């Protein structure tokens, strides 16, 4: 997420507008969207064209679709009517009742109570707020009126269901959070019955020592903790946007994280992760809440006075009760790592003689100034003992500790240790974002190659930096570097001096004698004996490194601006290598190169197109690129002609296949088929 790598993208036609957030159906793994208020679209991840996806036009405007893990999607209409998706799809044009009359829906949420989905939404009319609770499968509807206070106008809501009771929390304009408890009722409200008035009870004042939080969004973490996104306004200071965690039981702010780039004012929470827009990126922050206690709350307040705060803020409580909230200092995906700030009571001093089990964070802090031998020995031991659920996060912290040591001490670089970790552990770029930057600085080609092949989320900027480094490094220097050659050794023939044999190539649909007049470019005599497509323009080691770049995932929109900065001579060399691979693939009937992790024809073609898009004008102007572009043009043109001829006889070949199926296996016959 931090590297902005979209896995799928779908768009509606020009003039159409998506009118409510898209959701995922957990049961069918389908996406559900509504455009132009009434048009429902349903599609799967493998579907490419949204216009060809399932379409249903509904009879009323949709406000929101809520998807529940075990309850299925529930559709809320602007008029207050509610339907489960299954019921709606049985008759998309069914009449939808108008429940809210002149009221406007301000918020909606969905929860599960047992096996039944419960939909809660609030409306507003002339400054008055109303609460509706529906059980769509039971056709149960109840309406309530919220207690009206001029000084405390609701700004946003959140709700959850526990023990047949809906707990509705509302963030109000007087910088306070209020709570409303609503027992779930089974019977349907009778027409004409007066609305029950719901009274709010104060849960929390969002102020600490004169500093007031102007909240814009809140989410519930557990029964004792909430998270509020908003602006902290201290007297005489500029307001600053922050994400804050509050203990509702003890009325304390546990921690806050400043967001200097600004937010959209929205905060989401799912599976112990915060999601929020920070600047122009979507930021994800992991957290963990455990049992609350007064010692944790007071301890944190004391700790907030200190100036040296760890990258991960945590609270330890007495007798192993913890509340841990982890914030990473980077703007990337936060890691679950703990650095403990131990609070000891008089009772716990009795156990001083017993060995203390340190958390990962505290251990890494203790090893910050340890010797190289002690550091690596402790880290190896830590990885060996790492618990299974937190294994990936622990290894990420280990790699981060090593790269931090490399930054502080330029002479320190544990190449073998890092290689061992990357090769044997299923890591990602997000878990150790500084690793590849350090490897680039140290020009560790082997480690960069392994990272490119294994990391699924490398930013395009880093991919480009690797490509530029690989193309710029000399062949002589690469001869002395250990590089994995599995991806090239099966299709590049080498002599003892590592120079490639000139091989004779007969491409699918193309030969050197074929269609010589397709291009007016004359090939110089000295180059006729060694065509670009016949011999590899780079050595084995460089070819293996470039193959690793071809395997790296990328998004064209983000890679193209970086690729335009590639020097012209390096771009030509890379294009020559891609052309060589293209010709090699065309030798094979299945267009597949032999070997382990060899590039595919699609990867080769995609990178050729990218490179030409980025440098076409420059290459047209450069004399040294003229022959390469001419050969590439002739080869592609011959390929198009060849496949065009194949398409002409496709029908006849299919007829032959059909006749083979119809023919009896034991009957001997001679047949003459005329192909027109």
TrEMBL record:
Keywords: Activator, Nucleus, rRNA processing, Transcription, Transcription regulation
A GO CC annotation given for this chain: nucleolus
A single GO BP: maturation of SSU-rRNA
Span of domain Nucleolar protein 11 N-terminal: 1-288
Compartment(s) of residence: Nucleus, Nucleolus
Ranges of residues in domain Nucleolar protein 11 C-terminal: 362-674
Keyword check for Transcription regulation: yes
GO MF: RNA binding
PANTHER family to which the protein is assigned, alphabetical: NUCLEOLAR PROTEIN 11 (PTHR15633:SF2)
Protein name as annotated: NOL11 protein
Lineage of source species: Eukaryota, Metazoa, Chordata, Craniata, Vertebrata
Recorded name of the encoding gene: Nol11
């Amino acid at each position: 997420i931090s590297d902005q790598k979209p896995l799928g993208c779908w768009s509606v036609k020009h003039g159409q507008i998506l009118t409510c957030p898209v959701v995922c159906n957990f049961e069918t793994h389908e996406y559900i969207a509504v455009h132009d208020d009434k048009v429902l679209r349903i599609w799967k991840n493998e579907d490419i064209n949204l216009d060809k996806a399932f379409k249903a036009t509904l009879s009323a405007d949709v406000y929101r679709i809520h998807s529940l893990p075990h309850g299925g999607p529930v559709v809320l209409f602007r008029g207050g009517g509610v339907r489960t998706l299954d019921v709606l799809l049985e008759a998309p044009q069914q009449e939808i009742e108008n429940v809210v009359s002149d009221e406007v829906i301000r918020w909606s949420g969905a929860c599960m109570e047992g096996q039944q989905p419960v939909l809660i939404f609030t409306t507003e009319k002339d400054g008055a707020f109303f609460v509706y609770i529906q059980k769509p499968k039971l056709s149960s509807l109840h309406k309530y009126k919220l207690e009206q206070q001029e000084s405390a106008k609701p700004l946003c809501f959140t709700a959850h269901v526990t023990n047949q009771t809906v707990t509705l929390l509302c963030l109000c304009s007087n910088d306070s959070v209020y709570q409303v408890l609503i027992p779930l009722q089974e019977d349907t409200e009778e027409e004409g019955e007066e609305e029950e008035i719901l009274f709010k009870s104060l849960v929390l004042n969002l102020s600490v020592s004169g500093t007031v939080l102007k909240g814009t969004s809140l989410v519930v973490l557990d029964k004792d903790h909430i998270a509020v996104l908003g602006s902290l306004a201290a007297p005489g200071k500029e307001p600053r946007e922050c994400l804050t965690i509050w203990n509702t039981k003890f009325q304390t702010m546990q921690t806050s994280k400043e967001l200097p780039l600004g937010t959209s004012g929205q905060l989401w929470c799912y599976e112990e992760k915060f999601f929020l827009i920070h600047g122009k990126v979507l930021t994800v922050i992991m957290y963990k809440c455990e049992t609350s206690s007064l010692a944790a709350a007071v301890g944190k307040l004391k700790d907030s006075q200190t100036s040296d705060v760890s990258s991960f803020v945590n609270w330890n409580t007495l007798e192993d009760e913890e509340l841990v909230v982890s914030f990473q200092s980077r703007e990337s995906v936060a890691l679950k790592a703990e650095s403990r700030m131990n609070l000891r009571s008089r009772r716990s001093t009795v156990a001083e003689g017993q060995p203390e089990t340190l958390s990962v964070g505290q251990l890494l802090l203790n090893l910050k100034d340890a010797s190289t031998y002690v550091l690596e020995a402790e880290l190896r031991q830590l990885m060996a003992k790492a618990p299974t659920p937190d294994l990936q996060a622990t290894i990420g912290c280990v790699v981060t500790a090593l790269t931090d040591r490399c930054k502080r001490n330029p002479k320190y670089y544990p190449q073998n240790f890092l290689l061992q970790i990357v090769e044997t552990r299923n890591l990602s770029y997000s878990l150790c974002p500084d690793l590849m930057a350090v490897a680039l600085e140290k020009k560790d080609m082997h480690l960069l190659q392994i990272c490119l092949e294994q990391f699924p989320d490398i930013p395009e900027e880093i991919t480009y930096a690797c490509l530029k480094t690989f193309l710029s490094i000399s062949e002589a220097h690469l001869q002395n570097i250990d590089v994995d050659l599995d991806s090239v050794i099966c299709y590049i023939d080498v002599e003892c001096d590592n120079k490639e044999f000139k091989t004779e190539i007969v491409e699918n649909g193309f030969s050197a004698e074929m269609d010589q007049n397709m291009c007016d470019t004359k090939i110089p005599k000295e180059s006729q004996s060694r065509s670009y497509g016949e011999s590899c323009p780079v050595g084995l080691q460089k070819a293996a490194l470039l193959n690793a770049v071809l395997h790296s995932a990328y998004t064209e929109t983000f890679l193209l601006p970086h690729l335009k900065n590639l020097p012209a001579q390096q771009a030509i060399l890379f294009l020559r290598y891609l052309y060589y691979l293209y010709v090699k693939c065309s030798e094979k009937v299945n267009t597949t190169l032999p070997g382990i992790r060899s590039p595919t024809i699609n990867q080769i073609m995609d990178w050729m197109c990218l490179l030409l898009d980025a440098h076409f004008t420059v290459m047209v102007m450069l004399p040294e690129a003229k022959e390469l572009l001419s050969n590439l043009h002739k080869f592609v043109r011959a390929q198009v002609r060849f496949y065009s001829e194949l398409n002409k006889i496709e029908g006849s070949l299919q007829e032959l296949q059909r006749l083979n199926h119809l023919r009896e296996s034991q009957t001997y016959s001679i047949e003459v088929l005329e192909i027109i």
